Amino acid sequence: MSDTILPQSPSRRRFVSVAAAAVAAGSLSQLAFAETNQAIIEVAQPSGGGDKTAIRPLRVHVPESQLIDLRRRIKATRWPDRETVMDDSQGVPLAMIQEFARHWATDYDWRRCEAKLNSLPNFVTEIDGLDIHFIHVRSKHENAMPLIVTHGWPGSVIEMLKIIDPLTNPTAYGASASDPFHLVIPSLPGYGFSGKPTTTGWGPERTARAWVVLMKRLGYEKFAAQGGDLGGVVANVMGKQAPPELLGIHVNFPATVPPAIAKALAAGDPPPSGLSDDEKDAYEQLGSAARKRRAYALEMGTRPQTLYGLADSPVALASWLLDHGDGYVQPAAALTSAVFGRPINGESAGDLTRNDLLDDITLYWLTNTGISAARFYWESHFNFLAAADVSVPAAVSVFPRENYQAPRSWTERAYHNLVYYNRLDKGGHFAAWEQPQLFAEEVRAGLRPLRT
């Protein structure tokens, strides 16, 4: 395990003094679960109601009664009729979700995930009035580059756990000692153990600014940012905002679609003339996604509060998080293959397992963040894939089973200082989950130019 000592800085000294005072005073605050008023995490608080911007250690402990209630609710699910088709064209098939629920209620062990989380250094700090949770793992290598990695939806910090050691401890994975990272992995506002915004305004732009505050508070004067899915959106916004502390970004969910292409897609037009083969392929992929795979995003982007079932039914939450409108093809094929434990339609789950999915879904359930997470879409007011217009150094990795394979031509126009571009031969939308070693290699290679 990599060295997890925080950098020596005023924030570090404040953290040590606050934590010591909290322990001495026995002062622990608790995040209450809305319906039962039972705590699921413990956070050291400054004595006497002191500075909430201090870096405060967090520990996860879910009362057994919460897990008993979860299993009871799963077993009490009122099931609908079976779908009237033989495929998944009407949504998550009944047999699939019933078997998933059976495993969740009888065989799944949350304590294993809880122990893994508690083996890592978890913290909370208040930024702009909101508690932000993050994992902070420092490399043993002194030349490590500080890197903030942001998860997406329907993910959480859970989807990033397998990349922590490869990126902080590269020599243990056959990589160079010149390529290490100090990792900061925050939970997006409204996700996991971060606070749930009670007012509007916590979208990608405010989050991007908060990440800069977080990294500076940890003592990092220069750092890079990485992300996929919504994490890629935040990283792109950070790149566009271009704070002086930002060395550059790496994204595996690039925003490259030119305005003329976006306009043609919105109109449902055939591919414009003059496109290269790669550009035609991307146009068809984007068109298919717009026609078949965006219902969940439209609902969350317009009416997230209507999704009350995500707070009331574990099975409703699980089916919503699993389904991207294309369960047996990409990008959700890896999730479906993980549920079944075997490739579906030839689509491999890679290193992603059914228990990985349940760790993530159970975290959503225990924190009651199905709707607060969905609101991040409501707070986002731009096309996630529209050309990013980023001038800071940028690295782009294109995984073959992503929503679309961004052509190099579009990528070079969207990222004006493109320092790395690579098309992979395996992996998909959930690259850090599906192919953690390959993903780590891409992050190392993509951000290597920034080290000089």
UniProtKB/TrEMBL annotation:
GO BP terms: epoxide metabolic process
Domain of life: Bacteria
Keyword set includes Signal: yes
All copies of domain Epoxide hydrolase N-terminal, residue ranges: 55-160
Keywords for this protein: Aromatic hydrocarbons catabolism, Hydrolase, Signal
Pfam families per the UniProt record, alphabetical: EHN
Active site feature: D229, Y377, H429
Keyword Hydrolase assigned: yes
Signal peptide range in chain numbering: 1-34
InterPro entries recorded: AB_hydrolase_fold, Epox_hydrolase-like, Epoxide_hydro_N, Epoxide_hydrolase, TAT_signal
GO molecular function, one term: epoxide hydrolase activity
Family label: Belongs to the peptidase S33 family.
Protein name: Epoxide hydrolase N-terminal domain-containing protein
